Amino acid sequence: MLFKYQQWDERFAKKNSKAPFDILWDTFQELLTIASGDVSQAIKWLTELDEEYDITDQFEEYSVDNFIDELQERGYLTEDEEQNELSMTHKAERSLRKRSLEEIFDSLKKGTAGTHQTDHTGQGLERQPETRQWQQGDDITNIDSTGTMMNMLKHSSIDKMQLREDDIRIHNTDHYTSVATVLLIDLSHSMVLYGEDRITPAKKVAMALSELILNDYAKDSLDIVAFGNEAWEISIEELPYLKVGPYHTNTQQALQRARHILHQRKYANKQIFMITDGKPSCIIEDGEIYKNSFGLDRKIVNKVLDEGVKCRRDDIDITTFMIARDQYLQDFVRELTKANKGRAYFASLDNLGEYIFEDYIRNRKKRVK
């Protein structure tokens, strides 16, 4: 028996450690997100990619057809027998959210993940070096054993050790507070203009943020509002299927809808995250759409600024994630930020997720009373 040895390549080992299904599944999920959940379109694109780049040639007796069959066997796709069409299952939707979350966290700087920390101390998860005297109801797991022992030794003898209640020292802990967030997603036509896909990164961020809150911040709430000519609430399950429409941008109604939602949330911290690339170009007036796509219409802009002030009065922060570089649009965002006393980020599509997650996780602006 003959053996042939060659230099070990870690990249080659990692590449070939995955099963054929796992390699194709990663690509297919990206295609599903871009196709807004249209399984037929995603399969078509995957087939074209395979024909052009010979993806399945590296596998033994495994084709795109085998992959589609396995997707159904594993419960990611289901077939509508009447319409003879494949569609995603809830398992596939959850997988897209999880993948988006992993993708964003892979790009975050080390150490940014955490919980919503305030400057106040109290019952929490993270110990502080400072200590204080123990009080009734304090968690005994936070006792400062060294400080307590030193206090006890001050009035104890070798023959008799005496621990008094006032000897006990306990560590302060950071106080964590719940957060109610409304995420606004712009679905106006400009999100796909000029050959740039802006809606897919926005959907990924929304899916990732929803998955993060569902898994790690159960006491927080996340509501999602899409807006074009009007604003409407959507469920987490609808996120993969979002599509850009032939819409104008009704920023005023989006902020108004978010404010009304947050009025119903009994949380210490309330915030609005708005992902947009365009100027406000319409409002609803007397039941009719008033629109102006040319420049910044002060009538429309003033309505948006009024809503920003109302949010400020209700102690609701607006954080705008602007993914357009036009100077006059950035000036509008700065104007809104000033009216609300909120924040604005002029983010690229590559780092949109990083901006939003870092802002969400590091949110320390509010004070718990």
Automatic annotation (TrEMBL):
Annotated spans, Disordered:
108-135
Annotated CDD domains:
vWFA (cd00198)
Domain of life assignment: Bacteria
Where is each VWFA domain found? Answer: 181-279
Q: Which Pfam families match?
A: VWA_2
Q: Which Gene3D superfamilies match?
A: von Willebrand factor, type A domain
Instruction: List the protein's name.
Output: von Willebrand factor type A domain-containing protein
Provenance organism? Fodinibius salinus
